[in-house]
Specification:
With about 250 residues, the protein is an alpha/beta fold. It has a single domain, classed as Alpha/Beta hydrolase fold, catalytic domain (Rossmann fold, 3-Layer(aba) Sandwich). The chain contains 10 helices and 8 strands. Strands 1-2-4-3-5-6-7-8 form an 8-stranded mixed β-sheet, with helices on both faces. β7, α8 (about 215-220) and β8 (about 225-230) form a beta-alpha-beta unit. The protein is globular. About 45% of the residues are buried. The mean pLDDT is about 95.
């Protein structure tokens, strides 16, 4: 694991393979290791960069409130450090929010974009309120609150549940709280989708219990040129539940 200092944090990342750069951004409340099964295979075609978002994995965070856009700035700083002007991006769940924020802010740095089990809409009021409530509970009771609430929703596969439970348990309380608040206040990117000049790929499990597949279908309806791959019987973690199908889909990125 490599680290850089950027925007007042230490950002940890891994890198493998060769070819055009591909940045894989993990979702909440996990870290970059969710890509472990697919990154080596993708590395046969791409220069694969896997960051740990601030507060997750080996990355530190700040005590002040921050935004999804701030997290996108961290990724921009990472590309600067690596001397990369442009890359393809695949963002899972919250990582998709970060990738979308990056694409809106730095469109010329995006060669193509994949949203994996993600969405472009912002939180409705009730969802926003629920995130803040969870953040308060985590502050009072610890990460176990999220472990218990999220594990079975992430996947119906018991093997994947076990892996996810272990991953969530390792995350910092500060990172989880910061991410919850950042997601609650994230911008709705829907109106920006049609302005994106790069190819978009959508990967979504039909059995996703956290973000309904309808969110991907809505993006496809707004951007007819987007490629939508629906994965039967797959939940919120396709890179862990169906790694081969996920790899084959991400290979569509240019």
């Amino acid at each position: 694991m490599n680290t850089i200092s950027v925007n007042g944090i230490t950002l940890a990342y891994s890198r493998q393979g060769k070819g055009a750069p591909l940045v894989l951004i993990h979702g909440y409340p996990l870290d970059g290791s969710i890509w472990n099964e697919v990154a080596p295979v993708l590395g046969m075609q791409y220069d694969v960069i896997v960051p740990n978002l601030r507060g997750f994995g080996g990355s530190t965070t700040v005590n002040s409130t921050y935004t999804i856009s701030d997290m996108a700035d961290d990724i921009s700083g990472l590309l600067d450090h690596l001397g990369m002007e442009k890359a393809a991006f695949a963002g899972h769940s919250m990582g998709g929010y970060v990738a979308l924020a990056f694409a809106k802010k730095y469109p010329k740095r995006v060669s193509s974009l994949a949203l994996v089990s993600s969405q472009a809409v912002g939180d409705p009021p009730e969802r926003k309120e629920a995130r803040y409530k969870t953040a308060e509970e985590v502050a009072q009771k610890g990460v176990g609150v999220v472990v218990d609430a999220m594990t079975t929703k992430l996947s119906a596969d018991q093997r994947v549940q076990s892996l996810a439970r272990s991953l969530i348990t390792k995350q910092s309380k500060e990172g989880i709280i910061g991410a919850l608040k950042a997601m609650a206040e994230r911008e709705d990117i829907t109106s920006s989708l049609s302005s994106f000049a790069f190819p978009i790929v959508l990967v979504h499990g039909e059995a996703d219990a956290l973000i309904p597949i309808d969110r991907a279908r809505e993006i496809k309806a707004l951007v007819p040129s987007a490629s939508l791959v629906e994965l039967p019987s797959v939940g919120h973690l396709p890179m862990m539940e169906a790694p081969e199908m996920t790899v084959n889909t991400l290979k569509l990125l240019k």
